[in-house]
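Example for tutorial group B:
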């Protein structure tokens, strides 16, 4: 319940009720507490502390006692004790309180044996009886000052995270088609400073169907737009989305979108990559494999990514078979794994009983119409454009739609001679320097 009266009114109520509360019996005190908490909005325990203090004129929140009325407790650990504790902390190389407390008896004996420190008996008793939590609390100012005055702020509890359930890697064994994992792949190169292109990756857990969307910047609204565009062209309905704990996913935009479209929204555990193993695998096998690790920024790069992903989605989902684990069995120290026969995501959808006959027919028509050579040529062309953008080229030429596919087919037979065929991964070969050439040693 929120506070209904002003600060001054609350202080006046405390001053008026404190004496009456002290003279009242158990039942009367309970009635006074109920009325006082209802008027002020205070928690009942806080109201008890306020009305139990001896000085009603004291400011709100500065009670004279913690456990009872008029009783003040002498400080157990004074500044001299903290200074002694800091010596032990520095001697132990600034370890945590949980590690320092078991070491304190050994340190006390060693320092006294070598005459490094002389402790009074009362101080020694306190050192040997202090708890790890108290050690961390007393050393907190010293830790903060040692870190340059920077205070490590604990992240605020996000109310959205409480609304979004957590899904682990072992929760779903055989999910239906439409349960997607989503993730962002950064294309910032060696630095995360500034704005750069991101790839939104969505992977279906059951079929392996993968969609990639280029985002000019990392923005929650663009993430929702990307998911909406993928939802419009998927051959199946999206039943659920599972994301990590990034702010681009844990926000009101995506939560509202999922609620309006009856999509189950879950999140993985922090720092547990295996909870999103399927999309993490596609991040490397598709995005990084095809694009690389260079930095791309600007609208020109985002448009190139969009054209590239338009061809890549068809090539990967219709012409790239993938393995799927059937079962695994441990035999001694070895783990034997059995896999299903490799199949493309399209074939897995065609074999699934969850897909209707109309969708199957539409997938067959798309597959029969696609030319893998034309798709691969388009992918290679866009990779060359991406490589030029990564190299810093200011004039990016958009490739035309008409290419000589016969010449491209002939080049496939000898492409291995040139080494790396992907322009995004190709490295410029350095000419050998004559000074570094090793010459044979001639004896005699």
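The residue assignment follows.
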């Amino acid at each position: 319940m929120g506070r209904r009266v002003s600060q001054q009114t609350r202080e006046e109520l405390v001053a008026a009720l404190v004496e009456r509360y002290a003279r009242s019996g158990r039942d009367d005190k309970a009635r006074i507490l109920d009325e006082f908490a209802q008027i002020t909005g205070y928690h009942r325990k806080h109201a008890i502390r306020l009305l139990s203090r001896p000085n009603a004129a004291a400011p709100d929140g500065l009670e004279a006692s913690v456990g009872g009325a008029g009783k003040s407790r002498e400080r157990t650990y004074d500044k001299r004790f903290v200074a002694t504790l800091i010596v032990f902390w520095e001697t132990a190389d600034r370890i945590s309180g949980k590690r320092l407390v078991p070491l304190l008896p050994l340190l006390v004996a060693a320092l006294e044996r070598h005459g490094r420190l002389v402790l009074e008996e009362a101080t020694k008793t306190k050192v040997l009886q202090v708890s790890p939590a108290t050690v961390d609390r007393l050393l907190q100012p010293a830790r903060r000052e040692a870190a340059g005055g920077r205070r490590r702020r604990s992240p605020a509890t996000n109310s959205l995270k409480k609304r979004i359930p957590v899904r682990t890697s072992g929760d779903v064994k055989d999910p239906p088609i439409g349960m997607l994992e989503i993730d962002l792949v950064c294309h910032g190169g060696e630095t995360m400073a500034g704005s750069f292109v991101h790839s939104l990756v969505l992977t279906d857990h059951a079929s392996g169907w993968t969609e990639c969307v280029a985002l000019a910047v990392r923005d929650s609204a663009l993430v929702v737009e990307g998911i909406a565009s993928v939802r419009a062209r998927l051959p199946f309905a999206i039943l659920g989305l599972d994301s990590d704990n990034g702010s681009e996913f844990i926000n009101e935009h995506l939560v509202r979108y999922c609620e309006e479209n009856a999509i189950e929204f879950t999140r993985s555990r922090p720092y547990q990559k295996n909870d999103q193993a399927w999309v993490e695998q596609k991040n490397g096998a598709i995005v990084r494999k095809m694009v690389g690790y260079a930095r791309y920024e600007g609208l020109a790069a985002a448009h190139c990514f969009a054209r590239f992903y338009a061809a890549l989605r068809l090539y990967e989902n219709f012409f790239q078979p993938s393995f799927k684990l059937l079962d695994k069995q441990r035999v001694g120290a070895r783990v034997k794994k059995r896999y299903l026969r490799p199949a493309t995501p399209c074939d897995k959808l065609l074999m699934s009983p969850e897909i209707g006959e109309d969708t199957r027919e539409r997938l067959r028509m798309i597959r029969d119409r696609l030319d893998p050579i034309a798709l691969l040529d388009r992918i290679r062309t866009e990779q060359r454009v991406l490589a030029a953008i990564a190299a810093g080229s200011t004039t990016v030429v958009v490739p035309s739609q008409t290419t000589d596919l016969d010449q491209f087919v002939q080049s496939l037979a000898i492409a291995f001679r040139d080494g790396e065929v992907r322009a995004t991964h190709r490295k410029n070969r350095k000419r050998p320097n004559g000074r570094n050439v090793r010459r044979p040693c001639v004896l005699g």
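The beta strands are 179-186, 198-204, 210-215, 240-243, 264-267, 325-331, 334-339. Compare this with the pattern of hydrophobic and polar residues in the output above.
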